Amino acid sequence: MYDFRIVDQLQKIDQDIQRNELKYHQKRVMVSKEFTFDASHHLHCYEGKCKNLHGHTYTAIFGISGYVNDIGLVIDFSEMKQIWKEQIEIYLDHRYLNETLPKMNTSAENMVVWLFEKMEAALADKPNDCRVEFVKLYETPTSYAEARREWMIDE
Fold this sequence. Notes:
The chain is α+β, with helices and mostly antiparallel strands. It has helices at about 75-90, 95-100, 110-125, 150; strands at about 30-40, 55-65, 95, 130-140, 145-150. The protein contains four helices and five strands; from the N terminus they run E-E-H-E-H-H-E-E-H. The protein has a five-stranded mixed sheet. Pathway: Purine metabolism; 7-cyano-7-deazaguanine biosynthesis. Belongs to the PTPS family. QueD subfamily. InterPro entries: 6-PTP_synth/QueD, 6-PTP_synth/QueD_sf.
């Protein structure tokens, strides 16, 4: 059986724990964040239903790695959300992707590479050696495309 207690006093910085104790390690670690958006598109040169205009509720998952800062964070999840909102989602959510993305066939395979490149560019000026490790783009709950760092950068 576990002992249960209610914390009656939160630790205070510089009193109960010192600032230099906040950083636990110096290892590269990865954090992930998931976003959804709704959009329409169609595929060129495709014989099948997807040649017609249709839509999806997409899910994009970003894996970002780096070294923790002096308080133990690689990148704040709110920073990832801000990048998403300001630099990526504006081209995607409730948009006709064939118009808003660069000239491409708007397949999940092409879009996931574009997502990787947009996030990687946004992280270029961030500290902690942040970099994109992977992006997954779900077109449906059971179908997705993936871009990985080793395929995008290291190959």
